[in-house]
Amino acid sequence: MAGKRDAVRAMGAVAAVAVLTLTAAGCSDDTSPSDAASKAASAAASATAKIGDTVASATAEAGKKLDEFKGGVNAKDDVKLGDVTKDGGRATVPVTVTNSESATRSYAVQVDFRDSGGNLLDTIALTVSNVEAGKSKEATARSNRSLDGDVTADVARALRH
Predict the structure, then answer these.
(1) Which DSSP string do the residues of 86-151 spell out, in sequence order?
(2) What is the pLDDT of residues 67-96, one digit of tens each?
(3) Among the listed residues 135, 143, 149, the one whose alpha carbon sits nearest the alpha carbon of residue 13
(4) Which residues of the chain register pLDDT less than 70?
(5) CA–CA separation, 115 and 117 (whole Å)
(6) Could you tell me if 40 and 18 are in contact, meaning their C-beta atoms sit under 8 angstroms apart?
């Protein structure tokens, strides 16, 4: 819930800038400045709601995927992320899973993508199957949509079974 709240707060700032920009730019003869500002605020609020819904949907989907990973134990320390890059606008990050167990294990990993202010932009869950005992295996986490600006990634949850 806090991530959605952060995303909505960030979009509120964008809405405020849009309102100020439209107000400063003036309006046509048949539209008052308050009408233009109201329309801009409404459009910005709609965009904010859509982004908030997208993040909430991705978070719910990632949570479902990890919840389906039956009998998993916390394995967050077994997962390391590389540097975030952009691939056609979508954020990608290399994921390295190291199995410190004495048997082959599979992992479910939730990766959160955040902006420079720490606000949640997107989340993804991926499975890294059959990591041999004492070995590492690579995967790639890719955001569900294009993300703007500087993006960081962190491991929100990781389960091993």
Answers:
(1) EETTEEEEEEEEE--SSS-EEEEEEEEEEETT--EEEEEEEEEEEEPTT-EEEEEEEEEEE--S-E
(2) 666 678 999 999 999 999 998 899 999 999
(3) 149
(4) 1-70
(5) 5
(6) yes
Cβ atoms 36, 27 nearer than 8 A: yes
DSSP β-bridge partners for residue 131: 105
Angstrom CA distances, 78 to 35, 115, 153, stand at 55, 24, 16
First to last CA, the chain: 28
pTM: 0.63
* CA gap 56, 54 in Å, rounded: 5
For 149, the token pair is 């600006």
Please calculate the CA angle 97-92-121 and round it to the nearest 5 degrees: 105
